[in-house]
Structure formats: C-alpha cells, structure tokens
Write a structure and sequence with these properties.
The structure holds 2 protein chains of 2 kinds. Chain A is built from 11 helices and 12 strands. Chain A is α+β, with helices and mostly antiparallel strands. Chain A has 2 domains: about 5-45 and about 275-405, no CATH class; about 65-255, no CATH class. In chain A, a hairpin with a 4-residue loop joins strand 8 (about 180-185) and strand 9 (about 190-195). In chain A, helix 2 runs antiparallel to helix 8, helix 8 (about 275-310) packs parallel to helix 11 (about 370-395) and helix 10 (about 325-360) packs antiparallel against helix 11 (about 370-395). The radius of gyration of chain A is 32 Å and the shape is elongated. Chain B is of the alpha+beta class. Chain B has 2 domains: about 1-45 and about 305-435, no CATH class; about 65-255, no CATH class. Chain B is built from 16 helices and 10 strands. A 6-stranded mixed barrel of chain B has the order 2-3-8-5-7-6. In chain B, helix 11 (about 305-335) packs parallel to helix 15. At the A-B interface, helix 2, strand 12, helix 8 and helix 10 of A face helix 2, strand 2, helix 8, helix 11 and helix 13 of B.
C-alpha cells in the first residue's frame, strides 16, 4: 500500500483526521484509567473475608435502658440461639467483619510504646467465635471458656491471651512464629495463643482510611456487656432465612425489653460494604461502553462523508484499474495511520491523567498493560468502524468516472 | 428572520436524518453523563447553610501532642470533654454548642408495639438557632434547661408522625430507655446535606430523631454512638468519669462568630486557652489550634468523595469526546453543503447571513441534544441511585438550576463545536462552487 497518496489526500482533510485522532486519544486515556480503576475495585471485592459468609447472619441487640443483670441476659440469649434448630453456633461481639463499625487498636512489641507496630481491628469473642464465624485456625488453640472475661462500657481492657490473624502475626513477627509471643495494647502483655488464616477488619471499602490494614485483626476473649452489641449466628446450609426469623422470635420470647436492629444476612453486609466500589465500577463500565460507541459512530460518520466526497475520484481509480480490495485497503490504511497517531497521543494522555490522579486521589501508578491494551483496542475499533464506509467505497462502480457529476 | 433560519435549519437537518441523529445522540450522551455526575457532585459539595456557613466555626485544639498527631500534623477533628466543657464555660462566642451522637430504645405507650431504636443528639439550646433549624411546633429548650439538666427533648417530624400522627405533640412525653422525656419542640422537615454539624460521624444521611440537652446526656451517662479517638499510649481511667476525664476526643463543637473581628478574637482566645493548658502542665507541647468556618470545614473533611470527583473528571472527558465527535460530523455536514452555500452566496446572501444560519442550525442541534441529555440525566441519576450508596445520592434530584445548566451547556457546547465548521462554511467562494458544478 502506498502511503504517500494517502498522506497527500489527508493533507486536504487535516481537520477531519485531527478530530478523529483526538477523539481516539481521549477515548484511550479514559479507557486506560477507567479500566485500571475498575480492575482495582473488582480485586478489592473479590478478596475473601475469611468467614463462612453464605451461612451467617448478624443482628444488633439493644436493651431498653442498661439492665443490671446484663451478663445473665447475654448468656441466656446465647444459650437460646445456640439451642435453635439449624443453628451451628452463635456469639456476641463489639463488631463484625465488613460491617463498617468497629474498634481499631494499635499493638506494640514493648509496653507503652509511643508508636504502635501495627494497626488492627479489635474484636471481642468467646470460645464459640471461631466456629460461629467459620474461621480457620492455622496454629495454636482456641480460647477456653474460663479465659473469657466481662467488659462493660468504658472498662479498661487488657486480655492475657489473644488470637490474631496470619497477616497481623507476620507483620508483628516476620519470619518467626508469633505463637506464644507477647504483644502490648498499652502496658500489660497479651500472649498470642492462636492464629487464624484470615479475618478482615470492619472497614473493607477501597476508600476507607483503614484499607491499609484490612487483614490485621485480633480477637480478645471478652463478653461485651454494653447496652447494645451485634450478635453473629451461623446456620446449617440452606437454613438462613428460616433461622433469621426464628432467632428474632426466640429472643423476643426471652425478653421483650429490647430492640433487634439491622438483622441482615452476610451477603447484605458484603453488598453494603462494597456498594460504592461496585457502583463506581459499573458507572465507569457504562461510560466506557458509551465512549466506544460514540467514537466508533464518529469514525463511521466522518469516513462516510469522505467516501461520498471522493466518489468521483474513487470511480476514476477503479476505472484506471484499482481493485475493490485496493480501495478497501486505502481507507483501512488511512484509518490505521490516524488511529496510530491517536494511540500514541492517547498513551501519553493516559499516563498524564494517571499522574494527575495519583497526586490528587492517592491512586496507584497505572501499569503498562492498562495503556497498551486500550491502545490496541482503539486501533481495532477504528478498523471495525471504517469497514462499512470502506466497503461502500469499494463498491463504487468504475463507470462512475465516465458519468458527469 | 430567526424563525426563517430555524425553519431552514430544520429542513437541512431532516435532509440527513442519520447524521443529524448521530450529532444529537453524541451531544445528548455527553450532556447526560456529565450532568448526572455534576448533579451528584453538586449535591455532595453543597452548602446546606449558605447564609450561615461563613459565621459558623469549628474550633480544634491539639490535646494529644506531636507524637500522636495525624500524618498531616493537624489537631484532632473533635474535642475531649475537658476542652469542650472549658469552651462552653468560657462563653467566648455569642452562640456555641457542644454535641455528641447517642441513642435510645423508645418504648411506645401501646404495649402491643415493640420498642424501637431512635438516634439522638445531645447538644445545647443554641444548636437550633445556629443551624437555622426549622420548627413545626414549639421551639428549642432554653439555657435554663441546659443548666438544670432537664429531661426535655425536641423530636423530628418523622418521629412525631410515627408516634402522634403528625399532631402537635408539644407537652407530651415519650419513654426513652425507661425514662419519660417532655417534648418541647417538633422539627419541620430538615435535611441538611451534607449533615454539616457532624460530618465526622456521618457525612450524609438523615438527622437524628431526638435532640436533648448535652448536660442531661452527660449526667445520665448516655453512651456515645459515634467515633471515639484515643491517643495510643494513654489508657483512660475506668468508668464514665474516666471517659470524661480522658484525652479521648468524641465531641463536636460549633461556635457562631458574626464577623472577622469576632473570629480573630476567638482564635486568640483558643490560642490563649491552649497556652494556659501548656503552662498548667496538661499539654507538653506548644499550642496548636485551628478555627475553620463551615465551608472550610466541609472541604477539610473531604466531604466530597474521591469516587465522585473521578466520575466528574471522566464524564466531562466523555463530554469532550462527544463534542469533538459533533465537530467532525458538523464539518462533514456543512462541507457537503458547500455547493448550496455557494449558490446562496451568489444569489446575494452575505457571509453574516450564512454564518447566522449555520449558527442557528448548530443551536437547534444543541437544544435537541440538551433535551435528550436531560432525559438521559434523569435516567442516569436513577441508575446512580441504584448502584451508589444511598447517603450520597438519595437527595440528589434535578432542580431548575440543573435543567438550565444542562440545556445551556448543550447549546453552548454545540455552538462552540459548530464554530469551526461554520467558519469553514462561510469561506466558501461562490464563484468556485458554481464553476465546479
């Protein structure tokens, strides 16, 4: 294919070619960055929480007033829940993974450190917690019933034994076993007696302040005797809806002087936690699709116009012996040239846009694949869009040249 | 003349419906996407108290020292009880209110009904006048009730609807956590977005349904239903007294300062206060205080999420692509009419007339694109509401300003996009075109 005649034809259509290039460049820049963001958010959403989400529901119990016998009330509630048919196990806590509310603590390797060694989420639990969440204990042991203490609002907390996640153990004690080691919340040591494979913090969204330590959690052996606390119930597979209803009825039967709030399955907890991440991915996906369509139609429109404009010239070329294939190739090559210019400019623009987002949104640097794949996609899109007008051009009969315009 | 040009434009647009449709679609899509995101962005970055935002201030005091300071070195976003009480007692501003979120179980009088949760805000009488809170019945409690730790409350209209069918419930009592509280006021519809008075705990969403005196809440040890931030190496003493005496921060504080002079005096007062705390040994560091007005505070608290900023950037880039597209298509359209333009010029139409006709034609396209864009914006907002969290989007709606912005944006964008093609069109030399034919 001779490029020179294409170039000289393009010189007479500078603006049109420039407009298509510009469109392709901006399209590429958006596609690359949006694709990058979409993939990041999808990755966030696909992280496992470490718990048996399919068979767990949670509810918040709030007493009317602060009852004096809250310890007995909690114990009878838990006994009632654990005794329900279809229930695997249940426990009460201060907060639940992915649910958005919780306590965050720093832990240190020495007492009264000014700066902690790791940020963590702090969960209260008892000997039933591992089973009720379906956590996988990979080293050490569970709490025993006699290790579980009581805790009221504003009480000081200092457990003697704790269970931590693998991520936290590795952060605190890299390349050695954390089991049996002591860590400090404030001044008193707590011994790590167990390590669970994974248990996410309550703050999992990508935009959360706590996202850097999403895998750092620890369990402290306490029953939290506040006026309100979440309860977690794990059920046998397929029993979720039935038990969710039965559990509420049962608890109201035990005592009516309470409010059961936010009764929700764990899939609802997950959906809520990632709502904005998912929403952003969906909206960006829709915009990208519309963008591709608009750009493609723009190419179809402009190229069709060029074909119409050059009908006579095409007819003359055909009459002088150019094949249909040659006419088709002419428009395709022209488009590749325009698209290549657009792609090169687009890659630069995409990197610039990313750089700007890195500085203003704490975004990460974009990988090469995120600009190269859209670059190829944009060139292919051009080829696809130009096909119909180019075929129309190729079908112009040579006889046209002989007719007066 | 204008009507004739519009008629001409419509005729010309009808001649090539595919190209016309493509242009309108491109502009409509661009406007729809950008207006959807702009509407959400405007809702998030809105100023719910435009008349007051320059007079309401959040004081911040560094009570934790440089060792525990945030990364940016700014003092904590909230106050400790010690500091909040000191600021309230000093009364250095004409109006001021400390506050914190709490909550209750409300037991209805009808024994058949189950108790339910109500969220509450413990604050001072000045809160209502500072934030221009509208009342449907009654009014706020007074300074006396603040002093006396009275069991009086203000409820919002939703709770009044639920319990009293929307009737005037002033003087009636409701039972919160086994204690009767007397209603002194019922709020009218009040939906500040963002929830300016406490964006630390909840940036968007509903206001609390019960308001009660701060002094009463502290007295009754009403639990904090919000963030409590404690410096790492200082464990609070046990119990409620320990909580109050601790350096944990959990109280929002607002001061109303009518003018720049008052602002300066208040800042000086804050600095003095912090210096005094330094002298008496409570702070071991040089005083750090901040005084931000409501507008600066919302900005400082990053009320507008990164997500919505990204979406605004992306959607306006999309609009740009759509416009470039429209420029190309208009160019094609006008240039394909070069012959006709040539004849018209030869018949006596001057450049001004041709220019005006082309401009009207692009304006018509822009207007149609704007209307399509509006429809798409309405659909886009529905979609955004379906996929984004309710907090940020549940109050977004198209108001008159949005409609005006959309149509104006579309027409201006189309005319801008049409400028170059129009300019090219009027360059047509009548003689050349006639000769070529």
């Amino acid at each position: 294919m001779h490029i020179r005649p294409i170039l000289s034809a393009m010189r007479r259509n500078k603006v049109g070619a420039f407009l298509i290039s510009l469109q392709m460049a901006v399209t590429l820049a958006i596609l690359g960055n949006a694709g990058f963001i979409i993939e990041q958010r999808l990755n966030l959403m696909s992280r496992p929480s470490g718990i048996d989400e399919a068979n767990i529901f949670i509810m918040t119990n709030q007493w009317v007033g602060q009852p004096q016998d809250s310890k007995a009330l909690l114990e009878s509630d838990l006994a009632a829940l654990r005794g329900l048919p279809g229930v695997v196990d249940a426990y009460a806590s201060n907060s639940v993974p992915m649910d958005g509310n919780g306590w965050s603590n720093g832990v240190s390797l020495t007492p009264n450190q000014k700066h902690s060694n790791a940020h963590t989420a702090l969960y209260f639990g008892d000997e039933h917690t591992l089973n009720a969440l379906g956590l996988k204990l990979i080293a050490g042991r569970n709490f025993s019933a006699d290790e579980v203490g009581e805790l009221r609002d504003n009480d000081p907390v200092s457990p003697s034994v704790i269970i931590v996640t693998r991520a936290l153990a590795e952060k605190l004690f890299p390349n050695q076993s954390a089991l049996g080691k002591a860590v400090y919340g404030e001044d008193k040591p707590a011994t790590i007696i167990g390590i669970v494979d994974r248990m996410q913090t309550p703050w999992v969204s990508g935009s959360s302040w706590a996202s850097p330590f999403v895998e750092n959690s620890m369990l402290w052996p306490y029953h939290y005797l506040s006026s309100g606390y979440p309860m977690v119930v794990r059920v046998q597979p397929g029993q979720l809806d039935a038990v969710m209803k039965a559990a509420q009825d049962k608890l109201y039967e035990v005592s009516r002087a309470r409010v059961l709030n936010s009764v929700k399955s764990f899939s609802e907890v997950r959906a809520k936690a990632y709502r904005d991440d998912r929403g952003l991915a969906i909206i960006l996906g829709v915009v990208c699709t519309a963008l591709l369509a608009v750009t493609a139609f723009g190419i179809v429109g402009l190229t069709s116009f060029w074909v119409t404009q050059r009908r006579r010239q095409i007819g003359v070329r055909r009459a002088l012996g150019a094949t249909r294939r040659a006419i088709l190739a002419y428009f395709q090559t022209e488009n590749v040239m325009i698209a290549t210019v657009g792609a090169v400019a687009g890659v630069a623009l995409a990197l610039g846009l990313n750089l700007w987002m890195v500085t203003s949104f704490e975004m990460e640097r974009i990988g090469a694949a995120y600009v190269l794949i859209p670059a190829v996609a944009v060139v292919l899109l051009g080829q696809f869009a130009v096909l119909w007008p180019a075929l129309r051009a190729a079908s112009i009969p040579p006889a046209l040249a002989t007719r007066a315009a | 003349m204008f009507r004739y040009y519009v008629w001409l434009a419509l005729r010309s647009l009808r001649r090539n419906p595919a190209l016309t449709g493509l242009m309108i679609l491109a502009i409509g899509l661009g406007i729809g996407a950008s207006m959807t995101m702009l509407t959400i962005f405007r809702a998030m970055s809105g100023d719910p108290i435009p008349l007051k935002s320059s007079q309401l201030f959040v004081p911040q005091i560094d009570n934790i020292g440089p060792d525990h300071a945030k990364k940016d070195g700014e003092p904590p976003d909230m106050l400790s009880y010690t500091d909040a009480r000191a600021l309230m007692q000093a009364h250095a501003a004409p109006r001021q209110a400390a506050m914190y979120p709490t909550g209750f179980a409300l037991t209805p009088t009808d024994p058949q009904l189950r108790p339910f949760k109500v969220e509450a805000r413990a604050t001072y009488a000045d809160f209502f006048s500072m934030f221009d809170v509208p009342f449907k019945y009654g009014g706020p409690w007074g300074a006396n009730e603040d002093q006396a730790r009275s069991d009086v409350i203000v409820i919002d209209s939703k709770l009044d609807d639920k319990l009293f069918g929307g009737a005037n419930s002033v003087g009636k009592t409701i039972n919160l956590d086994n204690h009767d509280y007397r209603i002194v006021g019922v709020l009218d519809q009040w939906t500040p977005q963002p929830r300016v008075y406490d964006v630390v705990n909840d940036k968007f969403g509903e206001i609390e349904s019960v308001f009660l005196p701060f002094s009463r809440a502290i007295d009754q040890q009403m639990p904090l239903w919000g963030n409590n931030e404690c410096a790492f190496d200082k464990a609070p003493d046990p119990g409620w007294e320990g909580h109050l005496a601790s350096e944990c921060v959990w109280i929002q504080f607002w001061a109303q300062l009518p003018d720049a002079g008052a602002e300066q005096r208040y800042k000086a007062f804050l600095d003095n206060y912090a210096a005094e705390q330094h002298r008496n040994g409570r702070f071991h560091w040089a005083p750090v205080t901040r005084l931000r007005n409501a507008r600066q505070w919302l900005q400082y608290q990053h009320v507008v999420s990164d997500e919505s900023r990204i979406l605004v950037v992306v959607s306006f880039s999309f609009l740009f692509v759509c416009l470039v597209n429209a420029v190309g298509l208009m160019l094609a359209k006008f240039m394909s009419r070069a012959a006709e333009t040539g004849i018209r010029r030869a018949l006596g139409a001057n450049r001004r007339a041709v220019f005006a006709q082309c401009l009207v034609e692009t304006g018509v396209i822009g207007f149609a694109g704007g209307l399509l864009g509006l429809a798409l914006t309405a659909a886009g907002l529905l979609g955004a509401r379906a996929v984004l969290s309710k907090d940020a989007t549940h109050l977004t709606h198209l108001d008159f300003t949005d409609v005006a912005i959309a149509v104006a944006l579309a027409v201006i964008a189309a005319i801008l996009a049409g400028l170059y093609p129009t300019w090219r069109a009027i360059q047509v030399q009548p003689a050349w075109q006639l000769k070529a034919n």
